[in-house]
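Collaborator request, handled under Task 6.
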Amino acid sequence: MADLSAMEKKLAEYKCDTNEAVKLKLVRFQEDVEDDSTTFNPEYTHQVFGDDEIVFGYRGLQIQLFYTAGNLNTFFRILFSSKVTEKFDCVEVPECQQIIRGKCQASASWTKAVACFCCRK
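C-alpha cells returned to the collaborator:
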C-alpha cells in the first residue's frame, strides 16, 4: 500500500489545473509580450479541457495565448518542465496543442514565434 501512495504522489505532480496553466494576454506593444503584469488567467477552462479543468501528464505546464489588441493575431506557446512519457492505467498524456487548436479554431494568424507575432499588423 505504501508503494501505491508513493506512486499517487508522483503522479499528482503531473496534474495541472488548467485555470492556472493558461496564460492570456492582450498585447498592444512589443514590450507587452515580456511584461508578466499584463498576463491573466481565465476563470474557467472547462469548455476546452473538460469539467475537471485538469490536464494530466505535465509538470509546470504553462499555455500561453497572447492576442494583439487590434486584430487578435494569436501567439501560442506551450511550456513545461517535464512530461510523462509512459501510460498509467491506460491514461494517455493529451497533446495540449491539438486540444487548443481544435477548440479555438486555429487559423493562419497563429504563430509560435514571438518576432513574427510582434511584427504582424
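The cover message to the collaborator said: "The CA atoms of residues 14 and 58 lie 5 Å apart. Residues 2-12 form the longest helix (11 residues). Please let us know whether this matches your experimental observations."
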